[in-house]
Design a protein that fits this description.
By secondary structure, the chain is mainly alpha-helical. It has helices at about 5-10, 25-35, 40-45, 45-60, 65-80, 85-95, 100-115, 120-130; strands spanning about 155, 160.
């Protein structure tokens, strides 16, 4: 999917706000960006992230005009302004959607967008909040948790447990 420039900018976690956005502290934000590992900076600026947000807002009709707010939540988790375990609550509150849908959206973000960079996000989260996501944090799937150490095949971001026919 190729977004138009203005659409990419409005859905990009990096570009969604700028120095002219009321109440947004661009200097503070830029300091946080400068301290990020390159892989997380790339996640925030990559057009693929904007594409992901566009697809997400198309999948959930109640998000159709809230793409910029989704981008802000993603940005705030990546720069550790929001604890990843609080993402479902933040999604529900900021986007005014029910908690179950918010949890589903958070799981989608974690399993599809954050998957390649989750270890870097966890490091920042641990530094900032002194803890890693617990039981209330969004998990990649609502399927039963796999046995630790067991490798399960993956398909399209969904875990398939072949032990249970």
């Amino acid at each position: 999917m190729s977004l138009q420039l203005n659409e990419h900018l409005s859905l990009s976690p990096y570009f969604v706000d700028n120095s002219k956005t009321p109440g947004f502290n661009w200097e503070r934000f830029q300091d946080k960006i400068d301290a990020l590992p390159e892989i997380l900076y790339n996640l925030l600026t990559d057009e693929k992230t904007s594409d992901f947000i566009k697809v997400l807002t198309q999948k959930y009709p109640q998000l159709s005009v809230q793409g910029p707010d989704v981008a802000r939540i993603i940005r705030d988790v990546v720069i550790a302004d929001i604890y990843i375990g609080d993402m479902p609550t933040e999604i529900s509150k900021r986007l005014e959607i029910d908690q179950n849908t918010a949890m589903e959206i958070a799981r989608t973000v974690v399993s599809q967008l954050f998957a390649p960079v989750i270890e870097d996000i966890k490091k920042l989260q641990l530094q900032k909040f002194g803890k890693l996501p617990g039981a209330n944090a969004p998990q990649p799937s609502s399927a039963p948790r796999p046995v630790p150490g067991a490798d399960l095949p993956e398909s399209g971001g969904n875990i398939i447990d072949l032990r249970n026919p």
